[in-house]
Design a protein that fits this description.
Helix content: over 70%
Shape: globular
Number of helices: 11
Distance between the termini: 25 Å
Radius of gyration: 17 Å
Strand content: under 5%
Structural class: mainly alpha
């Protein structure tokens, strides 16, 4: 249990630090990556998944790094409720640490950036068009599709009778996250992960970031509730289809 939680904490911190870091690189003034564009962001997040999961697996043999993934594993009976809640808590704390690391790494650039929205966007998602129902629907649908793909990876027809070679599944997960970014980032910035959004958002709220604005708590429920519901829906669909 201690190694499991440590793996989830450090793995989440690395995953979210690379993800938030690529947004900072593209968004903050006077950064050498400024203006790099969305493809750079999607690729950075996908690589962040691979790096974070790799470390989490090495330390704790889990690699969830996503409260919604932990939730559907709980539904499958792989975790008890207390264990699942403990994992989710350290994932969120990993997100807070990630936000702090990115803040420190780009320390001179916060003051050089006037756009408060750009600063907030380094830490958490926000919708292109604010419509809470539509935003939640997007996050729910995309999360459901993503997690259904994750369930499908366990099929013997996909991974073979002996499963994927060690580490290959990690790259498949990164590829999935990259694909989601390319196809469905437009409406909401594709959180897909409650702790990815909530942890760094908390960091934004508590850190002394130069010239920051509010942390947009009015929207914060969308990237938490909708992916969790998507994880539950994917579990039900996968069960009905015989994938689990």
């Amino acid at each position: 249990m201690p190694n499991l939680l440590l793996g989830e904490f450090i793995g989440s911190a690395i995953f979210f630090a690379f993800g938030c870091g690529v947004v900072a690189n593209v968004s903050l003034n006077k950064s050498k990556g400024n203006g790099g564009g969305p493809i750079v962001v999607y690729t950075g997040w996908a690589m962040g998944v691979i790096l974070g999961v790799t470390v989490s697996l090495a330390i704790g043999n889990t690699g969830d790094l996503n409260c919604a993934v932990t939730f559907y594993k709980m539904l499958m009976g792989l975790y008890t409720v207390p264990v699942a809640l403990s994992i989710m808590a350290v994932q969120i704390l990993g997100g807070v640490l990630a936000g702090a690391l990115v803040w420190l790494a780009y320390l001179p650039h916060w003051e050089a950036t006037e756009d408060k929205g750009a600063k907030l966007g380094v830490f958490c998602t926000s919708p292109a068009i604010r419509s809470y129902g539509a935003n939640a629907l997007c996050e729910f649908l995309v999360s459901t599709m993503l997690f259904l793909v994750f369930f499908s990876m366990g099929s013997k027809f996909v991974s073979g009778p002996n499963g994927f070679p060690s580490g290959f599944g990690t790259y498949m997960v990164g590829l999935c996250v990259w694909a989601v970014g390319l196809s469905f980032c437009g409406p909401t910035g594709y959180a897909l992960n409650p702790c990815r959004d909530l942890g760094p958002r908390i960091a934004h709220a508590i850190l002394p970031i130069a010239g920051k604005g509010g942390s947009d708590w009015a929207y914060s429920w969308v990237p938490v509730v909708a992916p969790m519901a998507g994880g539950g829906a994917a579990y039900v669909i996968a069960k009905a289809l015989g994938l689990i």
